């Protein structure tokens, strides 16, 4: 699908893609201890994949939201050099409240969720900031030998040059989950649809149902 | 629909119910300054309604997530007296990061979103804790004369005796938005569906499409 073509995605298609990756993670016995949803785009896939990561007799996996926006998407003027590279944090993990469940993120399996890996800028920011935070906690608590596992789940990865990288070990160890890889199309997500019946028909015509 | 009957709801039905309330809010010229999503249930309706609260030329409304769970749903043993009344906070507002957008919540329009108003316990907790927080900020900053508006949006309100109340002025001034009121049925949300095609068919058969 070319750059200027619109790709319509139905809710049921999103649901099936979340299910696919949820099953993959469970099959690998890598159920996360916590899901970190990047708002707004990650909220819907995060909630859906949680259903497929459920294990009978286990509590729901806690979801924490982090708010990240690119300056360019906020309509805020930035340095032209840095356009697309600068990320605004609008919400961060709440370690205070997390402590009711965890002492920290140290040694845990953390699944970071967003809807799309476009330029990779936001995901890069999320992973590196979370890693930094865990390292600081490790030093503070003198628990340097407990490895923490970061994974990423996105519905769509756009096959295009990226502006930022993700950790090599994450990519190579199979902890980067893209339910599907697409061209550099214009992705029309259902939650942005004005007329959802019309949108669903367009998605069905493209097989994204 | 009786207590023991299952009510199946499709994603497109959820979308339409969010749209209905979004339009209602815009028609009243009461676009919120911030959306507070109660995780996990409120995440999907919060993201969808944001699309319908968008005004051309305006930035997206920021979403903050707060994590609230009833003790009983967590599988944690509590005092039997207090079962259903006790709420666990797993994440709270991040005022630090909010400050990039706001100085505080004082004087703002705040829309709290959850999927269902069942016993009303969680919503009561959310509103009263947020109100307390704003009052403390008002005292601290000596800004006692700026009224803050709290509204609630839920997809479904269950018509049943509630275990907790919401502020009288909110209910009477039309700031409690339930897209639809249902009996005390078992609500089957699409994000919990194992087989989404089958689920959608069942929802269609009940007219929830």
TrEMBL record, chains A, B:
<dbReference type="GO" id="GO:0004422">
    <property type="term" value="F:hypoxanthine phosphoribosyltransferase activity"/>
</dbReference>
<feature type="domain" description="Phosphoribosyltransferase">
    <location>
        <begin position="11"/>
        <end position="132"/>
    </location>
</feature>
<dbReference type="GO" id="GO:0032265">
    <property type="term" value="P:XMP salvage"/>
</dbReference>
<protein>
    <recommendedName>
        <fullName>Phosphoribosyltransferase domain-containing protein</fullName>
    </recommendedName>
</protein>
<dbReference type="GO" id="GO:0005737">
    <property type="term" value="C:cytoplasm"/>
</dbReference>
<dbReference type="GO" id="GO:0046100">
    <property type="term" value="P:hypoxanthine metabolic process"/>
</dbReference>
<dbReference type="Pfam" id="PF00156">
    <property type="entry name" value="Pribosyltran"/>
</dbReference>
<dbReference type="GO" id="GO:0032264">
    <property type="term" value="P:IMP salvage"/>
</dbReference>
<keyword id="KW-0328">Glycosyltransferase</keyword>
<dbReference type="GO" id="GO:0032263">
    <property type="term" value="P:GMP salvage"/>
</dbReference>
<dbReference type="InterPro" id="IPR000836">
    <property type="entry name" value="PRTase_dom"/>
</dbReference>
<keyword id="KW-0808">Transferase</keyword>
<dbReference type="InterPro" id="IPR029057">
    <property type="entry name" value="PRTase-like"/>
</dbReference>
<dbReference type="GO" id="GO:0000310">
    <property type="term" value="F:xanthine phosphoribosyltransferase activity"/>
</dbReference>
